[in-house]
Amino acid sequence: MTPQPGDFALTKIRGLTGAFVSAGQALVGDAAPVQHAYVYVGNGSIVQAEPGGAKKLRLDEAAEPVIWSTGRFDLSVPQRMRICYEARSLVGTPYSFLDYGSIALAHYRIRPRWVREFVADTGHMICSQLVDEVYLRAGVHLFDDGRLPGDVTPGDLWKLLRPKRVTSTDRELRRLAHGVA
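RE: above sequence
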């Protein structure tokens, strides 16, 4: 499927940085085959958070997507336009490795006020926070589980997009619910 403006992609990061992000995600129970996210803003361009600050790049300069959000959310044209606008408005936003620590603390239910305030301060973002933030600003809530805005890893976004696997237990429960012996 061809990505539409406002869709996001999840990708792999190679090398030491990818291994570091994967290890951090595993520590918080978010092991996923992706370590990075970006937003497609149309005209062959994306916006992504990077250690040097959020950047707008050509799609062909970005890491190869593992999965796109295309077709997963029912977004209106105004929402898509707003997502793209908000993503472009965040170009230059500093990156914060400390946000990974905050997300880890959230996993262990440790949420001092100063940590909550630090994450809520959109003056810095990691890639998945940027995706979540631009969707929030467009009125689209990706998560309804009570998390604070910004408590989002690439693994959390992966869980939204990956197809749910039907287990033998799921099949058995359906068969019992329909009265099939």
